[in-house]
Amino acid sequence: xxxxxxxxxxxxxxxxxxxxxxxxxxxxxxxxxxxxxxxxxxxxxxxxxxxxxxxxxxxxxxxxxxxxxxxxxxxxxxxxxxxxxxxxxxxxxxxxxxxxxxxxxxxxxxxxxxxxxxxxxxxxxxxxxxxxxxxxxxxxxxxxxxxxxxxxxxxxxxxxxxxxxxxxxxxxxxxxxxxxxxxxxxxxxxxxxxxxxxxxxxxxxxxxxxxxxxxxxxxxxxxxxxxxxxxxxxxxxxxxxxxxxxxxxxxxxxxxxxxxxxxxxxxxxxxxxxxxxxxxxxxxxxxxxxxxxxxxxxxxxxxxxxxxxxxxxxxxxxxxxxxxxxxxxxxxxxxxxxxxxxxxxxxxxxxxxxxxxx
Length: 358
Fold this sequence. Notes:
Layout: H1 10-19, H2 23-37, H3 52-58, E1 62-64, E2 67-71, H4 72-79, H5 86-93, E3 97-103, E4 108-115, H6 135-153, E5 157-160, H7 162-168, H8 170-173, E6 182-185, E7 188-192, H9 206-209, H10 213-216, H11 218-228, H12 233-238, H13 246-262, H14 274-292, H15 303-308, H16 311-317, H17 330-350
């Protein structure tokens, strides 16, 4: 039975304007999501969606040479934050895209756009990239992935070795951190670079994919943490997480219970509504896609396959583009410098860019 849609909702109007898909298709998916999950779909849960044209028009993107630029004033007026902070905010709104905003002057910023993986995309049968990589290469790729999640999505992930954790005093306060791939401390998500790797199962790295929800969907995260605070398992699990703040403890409990849910073990999360569970799963899958940026989406995989695979195995299954290269090609870097210099010269000649010498 079709569920009626309130087309006056701001969320519906945003989907209609940005998605670029026919209204009849949008209405079908909106009605379906309301029926199944009691919520509207996100932009990246719709078929054939493409918000790039809407974004380009909104922030006045223009091509100069072979590089796209946007006006910083248009970015701030439209997105609500300065160009220096715009990448994460844009990526939280235009969820079918991955956008990088790189300020080059007080007036303009370079804009790079690529499309995120979609569950409606059929991947190339030829998988490119070396997915049988050695531990050192794994560390390089993982670091690149974490950097992208920080810089483009605002997910604050702190990478430290055991020596660095010891020097910082964290190990003295929470000795169990030496044996954890990831953990939360004073509200920050830490990745233990001595233990964390792409050969880890997804459920052992949930701090990245679930804890990241605190940054990508803070309202939903706050509501869920409030629910977790009522769980009976808190007293039992508190013994495993000494010297933690109440907020840190709640996140650790949330991660533990979610790992139980994903691996088929008893969990108090079974008491959450279908809307809450669908929101959690959306955020986990989205953050996984953010990390892997494959030709396919992890949404194409069933829960068992998703949770029993290592991150490296998932990278192969979704044809991750992050494994095409593990080192920055010096010729590509030189080419980018050359193109940027040419564009700056062109802007200066046209009077759009002023060089200030002190």
